[in-house]
Structure formats: C-alpha cells, structure tokens
Amino acid sequence: MRRISKLTRVAVGVASLALAATACGGTSSEAGSEGDSEKGLAIAYDIGGKGDQSFNDAAFSGLDKAKKEFKYETADIEPTEGETDADKVQRLTSLAKQGYNPIVGVGFAYGPAMKEVSAKYPDVSFGIVDSVVEGKNVASLVFAENEASYLAGVAAAKATKTNTVGFVGGVDIPLIHKFEAGFKQGVADTNPKVKVLSQYLTQTAEEGGFSSPDKGKAAAESQLERNADVVYQAAGLSGQGVIEAAATQKKWAIGVDSDQYEQQALAKYKNYILTSALKDVGGAVYALAKSVEDKKPLTGVQTFDLKVDGVGLSEANPEYAKVAGLKDAVDKAKAAIIDGTIKVKTA
User: Fold this and answer.
1) Are residues 169 and 250 located together in one domain of the fold?
2) In this structure, are 65 and 185 located in the same domain?
3) Domain shared by 185 and 322, yes or no
4) Which domain holds residue 75?
5) What is the CATH number for 43?
6) pLDDT at position 47, please?
7) pLDDT tens, 182-207?
8) I need a surface site. Which of 66, 114, 167, 322 has the fewest CB within 10 A?
9) Could you tell me whether strands 195-202 and 230-234 are parallel, antiparallel, or unpaired per DSSP bridges?
C-alpha cells in the first residue's frame, strides 16, 4: 500500500494555471481559439473557488495532472455569488456543448444540476464530488471523511495539554457531520477525558459558511477562549481563519482536505498546523479523467477510503513526530480501521 506521503503529493501538487472555458463565473485561460486542440477534463468549482488552499485546490491538482499527462485543453470554472441551480445547469451545459469530457462538479451543491445535464448529454462522462447522483454516465466520487477525521481526533487527543479541543464545521449539513462524528470518536477512543467543543458557522452554504475566513476566525477564537488548544476545521475557505486564530495564540490547528502545512498562502501559520485530514479529491478527479482517456469511464459510486489511500493524515510538519505517542497511536488506529476492528461513525 502506498504511504500517505504519496497521497499528499497528489493532493497538493498544484502547479501552473489551468486553461479556460467560457461559461458562467470566472475562468482562467491561455491563448488559442476554440477548436484548436482536443478538449478534455473540465471542473466547476464549489463555493470558495480556486485559491481556498483546501477542497477546490485539491480538485485543481487533479485537473493539472490530467492536462500535463494527456496534453489536452482543460477548463476550470469559478462559482458566482448567490448562484442558483439554474446557474449551475447553465455552466455544466456550456461545458458539454463546448466538447469537454469528462466534466466534474466539485461539491454536493452540483447534485440537481448534474442529474439534469448528464441526462441530456449521454455521451459525455460526468463526475460529482461529495454526492451521489444516479446516471449511466455519472461517477459519484465520495470519500470516507469520517475515517480521516477519526485519525485527526487521535492526533488532537494526543497533542492537547488542556484536555479541551475544538471542531469548527463550515455548514451544518450531513457531509460535515461526518467530519465531526469521526473526530469526536477518535478523541474519545484515545482519551475519554478530553472535551470537544463544536461549532458550525452557518446553517446554509449561501450564508458563507465555506467562504468566510472572518467567521472561522471568530469561532476558533471563542473555542480558544474556552481552553481549547487544538482546533480541527472542516470549513473550506473559512478554515483559513481558524488556522490564523490558532497560530496567533500559538495553539495547534488541524487542516482539512489538502495538506495545509504545505500551502504557500498559509506559510506564515505553518508551524502551528499540526497535521491535516487529507481527502484525495485531486486523485479522484484524475482517476475519472484517466478512465475516460482509457475509454473505460468510471460510473456509479466510487468510494475513496483509508484502504485505497483516498483519505489519510498528513505527517509533513516535523512537530507531528515529536508529540509523545501521537504517530504510534495514529498508525495503530489506521490499521484498525482498515482491518475493520474500528468502525467509524458517520453521524
């Protein structure tokens, strides 16, 4: 089995800007008229967009890898503020009409639009991250976030000195409940004396739960004031505020999705990013692109868990190995989850 460091390299290997498409929302592009080259993978970002140092940037790394390997034109499309399902339908339809294949919607919010558009373009392969959409030409790319979060909980329980840790979720929805459930279970199984403070930033994504670093910072500051000394966030772009708050007070933060210790935009806080719960969105996006290139497109539910290194925990920060008992406890928990000894809750 690959070591988690390989997963990390895939998840955070963001390089040059992607090529463009014309559709709703902003794009990045390179010179050349439509039709100059074969068109391949296109991704439509979730709330927070490119540059979130987390979920969306992980998806971009998969697009970037596919572009380099398959030498075709790609597109990555930004969301618009306050957009509707109709806007997403228009975006996906535009990409399909332009000849992109496959087309990936990054985030559960693309569910209704993906179902509608994929039915109209049966010869195009579609993928959706973090949701299940029925369709003969749709691959549902889902992850065992609860398993990675369990490992984050083990790490937090080993690192805390106050026996109080925090969880900040971006939006109060079932997907983020998986992160919280795994984290709490990992903490409790490691040290039942450790208290977990939990807070969700908003009830809906439209309220900015995944795109407001100020909200994340305020939530983390509140938990730190209540004695938390390790704070785990599953909040997209808002998580940057959580990391800033923890680092400012010289407490531990735990990142999410990408290895946030390695993110350039968070470099000034990196010494306080103990680890990150990894979710190989980039690897999943690339896997779909490769399957289409191989003329064997993935369809149905594709689950990425610890067994396939689809999720994991980063060890990039040298301090990770210096926390007494942390690495051994995480390694033991990982093995137990993989062999089925530990069953991780999802809610």
Assistant:
1) yes
2) no
3) yes
4) 4-143+281-308
5) 3.40.50.2300
6) 80
7) 999 999 999 999 999 999 999 998 89
8) 322
9) unpaired
